[in-house]
Amino acid sequence: MKRSKLELKYKPDFDYAKEMWNHYWAKEVLKRPLVVANVVKQEGKTVDKDKYKYYNACTKNYREQLTIIDEWLDNTLFLAESIPCFSPSHGPDQFAAMLGADLKFSESSKTTNWVEPIVENWEEFIPKIKLNENNSVWQSLLEYSKILKEHSKGKYLVGICDFYSNADMLSAIRSPAKLCMDFYDYPESIAKAMLSVRKLYKTVYNSLYEAGGMNNETGTIGWIPFWCKDKYATIQCDFICMVSPKIANEYIIPALEEEANFLDHCIYHLDGPGALPHLDNILAIKKIDAIQWIPGDGQPPQYEWIDVLKKCQKAGKGLQILDVTSIDIIKKFSKELSPEGLVYCIDVKTEREVDEITTWLEKNT
Length: 365
Prior knowledge:
There is one protein chain. By secondary structure, this protein is an alpha/beta fold. It is 42% helix and 16% strand. It contains 14 helices and 13 strands. The two termini are 41 Å apart.
């Protein structure tokens, strides 16, 4: 029996968008570089679906978040290759919380959370680095994924969580400063801890993939909004900025390579100038398809880092292009970069502006 195609109420051209993304991962340019654009239908009625997403997830206030998602969907146009999605993420350190750390919120801000370090002795803690099926955050992630799976049917996709795995996870449960010293004081323990953490990634991903109802028809999408018919995610290690390339090559790069090899496709989140000393080694990971370069607070915008972007393209990596608020910025990038592998994530106010950008790209690709 032939399986019926998946249709999304808020993305009537979903099939066309999927075709564009399929060509993207095959390293083919179909008409133009890809464009991801969300436009508010009614000016002044912007709905921030993400503002309290962690708080609502951690307090199991799922239903309130579903109402916010519905309001966001009703007031948003998902244009070009943008595909509506929402993930069950509980916070940046949810991976650490699966090992027993408590996700904490400030009374003055419910928009993000963190964990307090829980490791005093690595040799005592390493046996605890395993997935506890009864862990409350893990149970909530699975429960929330299943709720989103039902709520999303015919409307949007359940997204892959932002994981903050490998050394980011160790940094959260130990503290960044102490972990930096541990590479020198307890190298054998850190090596064992990293191996234990790496074993969790595949299990966590596959379990959430299944709980969220993901398959080849829904595909996968994440907080960096690239869609893939197979298994995709953002991989990263923000902690890498705090160590030398020598330490990173021994402990962190192998973990990133393992995550990339497990996934069918992935993008690497390269965060801040402190990560640039590691760029050559990151680009050497063959299975990383694309790079998201974030210059960071107080730094020039992305289009003033053309040397970094060109280096990524020369290594055969695609790019997520940010800071795009007008067609003039698109033209700046187009003069410097090859169209292959580019995904423009644009921030404009009208559907007409999106049409102007996609039309110009088609004529100039």
